[in-house]
Amino acid sequence: MSAPVVHTEPTGRATAPDIRPRYRTPGFWTAVVAVAIAVAVPFLVSDYDLFNLSRVAAVAIGVASLNLLTGFSGQVSLGQGATFGIGGYAAMMAIRYLEWPVWVALLAAIAVGALVGFVIGLPAVRMGGFNLGLLTIVIAALFPVLLYRFSDFTGGQAGVTLAAPAFPSPTDSLTDAQWSYLVVLTLLVLTIAFLDQLVARRTGRALSLIRAGRILAVSNGVDVERLKLQFFVISSVLAALGGAIFAFVLGLVVPESYPLVFSITLLVASVVGGSRSWIGAILGAAMVVYLPSLASSVIPGEASAYLAQLVFAVVLGLCVIVASSGIAGAGRRLASSIERVLRERRATAPPTPPSTTREEIR
Amino acid sequence: MNHQTRSRGTVATFAVATAAVLVLAGCTPRAATGSDAQSADDSPIVIGASWPQSGPLGSVAPGLAGLEAAIAAANEDGGVDGREIELVTADDAYDPARLVENERKFVEQDGAIAVVNFGGISIAGREYLGQKQVMGVSMAGNSPLSDIEAFPMQRAFWPDVSWEAQLQGKWLTEHAPDAVVGYIGFNNDLTESHLAGLAAQGVTPAQVAAVPPGTADLSAQVSQFQAAGVDTVIINIGAPTGGATLAYMDQIGWKPTVFLSSTVSDFHTVINISGPGPVEGAYSFEFFKDPSDPRYADDDVIAQYLDDMEASGHEKDATNALALEGYGLGAALVDALSRTDSFDSEGLLAAWDSFDGTENPMLRDGITLEESSHGRVIFQYQLSRFDGASWVDEGEIEDVRELGIVE
Amino acid sequence: MSAASSGSPAAPILSLRGVGISFRGVRALDDVTFDVPRGGVTAVIGPNGAGKTTLFNCISGIYRHEGDIALAGADIQHLRAHRRAAAGIARTFQTPTLLDAESVFENVLVGTHAWTRTGPAGVLLGTRSARREEREAREVAWERLTAVGLAPVAHVPAGALPHADRRRAEVARALASRPRILMLDEPAAGLSAAESDELLELVAEQGRATGMTSVLVEHDVALVMRTAGWIAVLDAGRLLATGAPDAIRQDPAVVAAYLGTDAEVAA
Question: Which is one Pfam family of this protein (chain C) (predicted)?
């Protein structure tokens, strides 16, 4: 599923282009295939792999929330990792101390995320740009410090752990890991479907205008501050949701998991994956989850952390220089070229209309 | 739908499918996992070790080298009961999330019967190990690891840091009842445990400096100590903080009584950084040997240790006390395995809990591994004083169980 | 006020009263007071730096300004920019500003934001009224697109359009907002005489069909004299004169300050 483009039928029509139903878009069917494969995975790979894939899915929700913010509403947050962590803590503490059921705890995380988003977002949308970056970076830097400071409440370094798996399998034919993966996958798919629908139509157009410039947006009747605040809150809610799911998968929350670097890592993952693409969010999340252990298996020891950072930096640099739309964007471009080659093969066919995709024009 | 978008969709779908196949190729098939493979009599005994090899506590990595050397040496000698011990290792960068990830891999993928780690963050993995009924052993001394009632699968190798703190407190009340104490430690639960131990002996530091790992400049805190009239400084913090602070105190000519906690009193952690002069006269309640200390130059056990380190390719870490401690931990595990009834978590745990005057290559002469209490196996300390070249024994070995510190 | 102001219609669509603004102490507009008659084309002219674009930015609410502005008799000076757009003030920019990555159709469609009401929740749920409104918006956008003659390139990314088509697309976008006032900032810049005549004729036609009033800022005095029914002249932030083209052409103050060099062209 990619950034929403209203699909416009080609020339020569006397009436407005149709709103193409979702099931007629290629992205939809790609997504269906992807989900079908993802559903088959738990019956093929080990529980440990499922644990990692579940983590990817949870982080992907966090990265997607950042995509919504940076890629769609044109805001930047260097504190998304903190919001992710706050969601995790809210959910875990609700279970551990209040003994709320898992699903209620998820709702608690969502509520806390909304509150945090509103409190940060209110001044943030007025600031914008550099100042917003600074504000969010301060929050990200403060979060772990506060967790240590109020350790009676947060468990300090030991954090909060779950006494039993958050998503226990209801049936003997599935292990906890299989069940947990399927639950997390479902939540990810729902989140992406929600996001994809959210940035469509009139809202999507308003967002395009905001990204193009404030004056253009207000001149077309867009209440920029209001929409930005709405999206800041929605983004925080999803970050908190992703964080809660991540904590459930891991079975613990600790301050060490949410340093400032984690917030920056999420941002890099968003850029590298492609901040206008939901598939990109999953790719970025996969990097966040797999790169550190991959790096330490290639070069053990102190150098591994640097290797992971180096790979991250190089990929980020490549994205900035050659593929500004991230891996997902580069993939789309590649698909376009393949498609063009295929089309040229059908050489004798009637003359084809000029290429119409924006990727090609760029 | 026109054919452009259709072929685009086909390409995209194909790409997704390809990506999925690639991902699956990197995973382990379901059938090949789990502990089923463990049942055969000649199959290796798997132990997982998650250790900080990078990150804020990357400096403790030699501990893992020592552990590897001990296991390699045991395998060289024919293993345990004809079985090889397979040590699976992974870096956790001192990140609890990665620690838990590693533990899951060891348990679910490698079929490990025990998981070893450095400590501190290992409290994060206790719950999981409890759920999976897999034994966990940490090297570190944090007091929370003594809570074996809540976490019956978790053990720790070093004694509880609060016990040594009690010994320090007891010494202070006996020898310097009017001491004004300043404490320097990490900004984590190690400091809490230590202060709790001092408090149990009626000692409350007038000044506490709790700083993050890696801090080198404590001049502000030292000035504060001086201003508050501190005359006794207790240091329980790793490299480079302890060494740098002692060097600075020496530079400004301030000579209070200094207590170094045992695990941060070795040459690599302190003396090589500060130089021997600034440490001269410092006290420490010690339980392990330091391969860098000249007094062990002719020690047979240390010589064997050095050979084993070299044989396993870790000679560059051999002079680091942490490596010897990792080696000691490995030797303790091998000893427990050699006494176990069954090569599973339950059997290993039972054997680990029943040391009885067991010698260990890292321990000082006269100190032995004992029957487990509070999840710990070491209870004896030797008060030592640094004479400018070497740590020298002061008085007799003290046993915290006999002193009533541990009941 | 100049003598040329006689003949102003009774019910103006837009009334400016004492509109002023300063930037870092520099008076960009000072006490600008005039009415824009309902319907037809009104032009704002003046030399470079006279404050013409600044005036547009005040009317559309981009700048905070002094003075009162009334749209069809209702005060709008307290409304923020997006509310003024929703109230029926549309504009184009000196340099056509489009979403270059989006299709031309999409660029026109964004103009409908001003009068559509579906919020994020409606979009998300795809309610019946949201779908109805979306269909209507697309029909309006398509109709405006067709009117400016860009239907054949509806699916082309706006970034690939030639300059004249970018102007047309921008006008179509403004028209798609169903404006009561359309403000065009130098619509002829970069266009040939034929192209700009065609564009302004198109705007005038839309005005006749919908009752929309056009206000244009323009350098090309000849063009203004041909197309505008009413003219306001600015000089150094102050209103010099308002009136019908013939009156303006003969206004001595205007000739002295501005038309002097261009007088032959204008005649």
Answer: BCA_ABC_TP_C
Is B228 domain-assigned? yes
Q: Same domain for C118 and C223?
A: no
Q: A36-68: per-residue pLDDT in tens?
A: 989 998 998 888 889 999 999 999 999 999 999
| Cβ-defined contact of B7 to A177 (cutoff 8 Å) | no
Burial of C162 (0-12, 13-18, 19+ CB in 10 A): exposed
Q: What pLDDT is recorded for position C25?
A: 87
Residue partners of A21: CB distance under 8 A and separation at least 6:
none
pLDDT of residue A27: 77
B242 and B390 belong to one structural domain: yes
* Burial of B306 per CB tally in 10 Å (0-12, 13-18, 19+): buried
With beta carbons less than 8 A apart as the criterion, state whether B386 and B392 touch. yes
Residue C144: domain span: 96-178
The reply to whether C208 falls in a domain is: no
State the Cα–Cα distance between residues B351 and B332, nearest whole angstrom: 10
Domain range enclosing A93: 22-258
Distance from C-alpha of A84 to C-alpha of A261, rounded to nearest angstrom: 13
Indicate whether B73 belongs to any domain.
Answer: yes
CATH code, domain carrying C187:
3.40.50.300
Question: Facing residues of B136 across strands?
Answer: B115, B154
Cβ neighbours of B12 in A, within 8 Å: 26-27, 30, 332, 335
Residue B268 lies in a domain: yes
Which chain A residues are within 8 Å of C137, Cβ to Cβ? 202
For chain B positions 124-183, those within 8 Å of chain A (CB to CB) are 124, 126-128, 131, 144
Residue A101 domain flag: yes
Which of B53, B54, B64, B92 is the best substitution to test chain A (most A C-beta atoms within 10 A)?
Answer: B54
Domain count, chain C: 2
Nearest neighbour of A202 by CB, restricted to C91, C134, C151? C134
Kindly list the strands in the beta sheet with B114-117, ordered across the sheet, starting from the edge strand earlier in the chain.
B85-91, B45-51, B114-117, B135-138, B154-156
Q: Is residue B405 part of a domain?
A: no
Total domains, chain A: 1
Instruction: Give me the domain span that covers residue B13.
Output: 3-32
Contact residues for A301 (Cβ-Cβ < 8 A; gap 6+)? B53, B54, B58, B61, B91
Report the relative pairing of strands B114-117 and B45-51 from DSSP bridges: parallel
